[in-house]
Design brief:
alpha+beta; about 200 residues; 5-stranded antiparallel beta sheet; 2 helices; minor pseudopilin epsh fold; elongated
């Protein structure tokens, strides 16, 4: 009676014991194909994230500089810098994506030059760029950008409004500074090939 309650054990055949080498190779080939299809969109996602992150960091720096200029009633300048980590940084950068500094620019006192960290100027903030994100300003902000005590921007060319174009792969974002000092970040722009300004 006990033997009728339980089914008889069946012997497993060798083909039922697991996967064959061909099954494993086919599975790995399928995984490689699926990863190959997923990696380009993922790289585009990373590219869009990097430009967004850098655009927000730059816009926050510009908003900080503007608010400090209004709060202190003095000119605050932001310039490109490669020596931003040194004890006495200056506006020596060739490109904005290498780094930048913000400082209280007392251009009205003595021999102090506008747009240059010298004399009685006071360093307020530093920032490092991302190596993969290229930052290209319009000619207005090629060397530096300052905010007056009223919050209005002025560039190294004497004009106020301008744009910073941020590029990474096929992704682009713009940080736009209006003549009133308002700073905005554009919607993402994606190009089929490399993004351009």
């Amino acid at each position: 009676m006990a033997s009728s309650q339980f089914p008889k054990r069946q012997r497993l055949r060798a083909t039922q014991a697991g996967l064959s080498a061909i099954d494993l190779i086919m599975g790995m080939a399928l995984a490689v194909v699926l990863l190959g299809l997923a990696i380009p969109p993922f790289q585009g996602l990373l590219s869009r994230y990097r430009t967004l992150s850098e655009a927000h960091e730059l816009s926050q720096l510009l908003l900080f500089a503007r608010s400090e200029a209004i709060r202190r009633g003095a000119r605050v300048t932001v310039c490109r810098s490669t020596s931003f980590t040194s004890e006495r940084p200056n506006c020596d950068g060739e490109r904005w994506d290498q780094g930048w500094i913000a400082f209280l620019d007392n251009a009205d006192t003595g021999n102090n030059r506008p747009g240059v960290l010298d004399g009685v100027d006071h360093l307020l903030r530093i920032g490092a760029g991302r190596p993969t994100v290229r930052v290209e300003p319009t000619a207005t902000y090629r060397d530096w950008l300052a905010f007056t005590p009223t919050g209005r921007p002025i560039g190294s060319t004497g004009l106020g409004n301008g744009t910073f174009c941020l590029l990474d792969g096929n992704s682009r974002r713009d940080v736009v500074i209006a003549a009133t000092g308002r700073v905005t970040v554009s919607a993402p722009m994606t190009f089929p090939e490399q993004a351009t300004c």
